[in-house]
């Protein structure tokens, strides 16, 4: 049913919590697992404190994710891309012909403005395939 599963990761607690569901689903469906981390390009002339803009941090994050799945008997492929997270996630899903995107939910509040700005909501709106959001 789900031949290719895309799992975008970042350093959030929600992303780590979603990994258990990803492992269960991938094992059940014997899916190909692609772990994706998106590095946001730094804003011009503004010093960044965002760890997801550091290639070293992203490389370590992907290695740790691969190791976590490997310990559960799952061979995962890791991809690193640069760009705006929601758009990049959807582009990669389209390129890989992914059957499912699984991601953690990071709410920004209950206001309409806050929820419409989240990466998760943008992925849901733009995705070429179903999106499973893990709360």
UniProtKB/TrEMBL annotation:
Gene3D superfamilies given in the database record: HUPs (3.40.50.620)
Q: Which InterPro entries match?
A: Rossmann-like_a/b/a_fold, Universal_stress_UspA, UspA
What superkingdom does the record give? Bacteria
Alphabetized Pfam families for the sequence: Usp
For the UspA domain, which residue ranges apply? 1-135
Similarity comment: Belongs to the universal stress protein A family.
**What name goes with this protein?**
Universal stress protein
Which species does the entry assign this protein to?
Phormidesmis priestleyi ULC007
């Amino acid at each position: 049913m789900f031949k290719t599963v895309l799992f975008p990761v970042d350093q959030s607690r929600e992303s780590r919590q979603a990994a258990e569901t990803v492992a269960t689903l991938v094992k059940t469906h014997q899916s190909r697992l692609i772990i994706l981390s998106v590095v946001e390009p730094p804003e011009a002339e503004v010093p960044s404190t965002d760890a997801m803009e550091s290639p070293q941090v992203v490389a370590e994050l992907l290695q740790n994710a691969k190791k976590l799945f490997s310990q559960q008997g799952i061979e995962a492929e890791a991809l690193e891309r640069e760009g705006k997270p929601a758009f990049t996630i959807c582009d990669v899903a389209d390129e890989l012909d992914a059957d499912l995107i699984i991601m953690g939910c990071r709410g920004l509040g209950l206001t309409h403005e806050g929820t419409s700005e989240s990466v998760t909501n943008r992925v849901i709106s733009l995705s070429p395939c179903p999106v499973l959001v893990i709360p």
